[in-house]
Amino acid sequence: MKILVSTWRTIAANVRRTTAIPKVKSFMKVAFSDKYLFYTNVTISLSLSSVGDLMEQSYEIYIKEQTHYDFKRCAHMAFSGVAVGILCHHWYKVLDKFIVGKTVDMVIKKLVLDQFVFSPVMIVTLFGSLALFEENPYENFKEEVRDKFVKLYRAEWMVWPPAQIINFYFLPTKYRVLYDNTISLGYDVYTSQVKHSKPAKALLEDKIKHHSS
């Protein structure tokens, strides 16, 4: 986190002396340059993962599933966003390095690899990074992957194939994580909902307790 803060201070210092619109252009140029792209992508993923969780928590408060915001939970989702941002940053660079071009054939190859290879890795990374903050991390990780992986992966197939066609065909590599996170804000809300819903085992235990009381 200290590295991210220090990096953004450096970027801000590089554009401080310009004015208005030129300042915005200068900021974008610096932030999405090869030197700072990694930090930009991680910050974007961290920020929008947090926003997605806060949106989901707002809904849960509205329907009275919880009484107040859980900022610790939000911080944990932000941490998972960092992990996802790191993976996305390197994944797109690898894809563009080995599959060059924007023909239909190249786009389909990237799309297939993205859905069949990277999407499962991302979902496992989400559960794994969040399990680090829970009791019995390994057991919780296994249980959540077993109960929730298919649900999230099914949702991935509904959201990402059409979105990634645009991503792979029209956008340069440096803007792909930004595009992903913009599209995935709604998906992040759903991810937070699935992650913090009770697993099947817990729901069964609650049902048994309810009938026995």
UniProtKB/TrEMBL annotation:
Which Pfam family name is an example for this entry?
A: Mpv17_PMP22
Q: What is the annotated localization of this protein?
A: Membrane
An example GO biological process term is:
mitochondrial ribosome assembly
Q: What keywords does the record list, in alphabetical order?
A: Membrane, Transmembrane, Transmembrane helix
**Record-annotated membrane-spanning stretches:** 74-92, 112-133
The way it spans or sits in the membrane comes to: Multi-pass membrane protein
Show the GO cellular component annotation of the record.
membrane; mitochondrion
Judging by the UniProt lineage, the source's domain of life is: Eukaryota
Record InterPro entries: Mpv17_PMP22
> Which family is this sequence assigned to?
Belongs to the peroxisomal membrane protein PXMP2/4 family.
Q: What is this protein called?
A: Mpv17-like protein 2
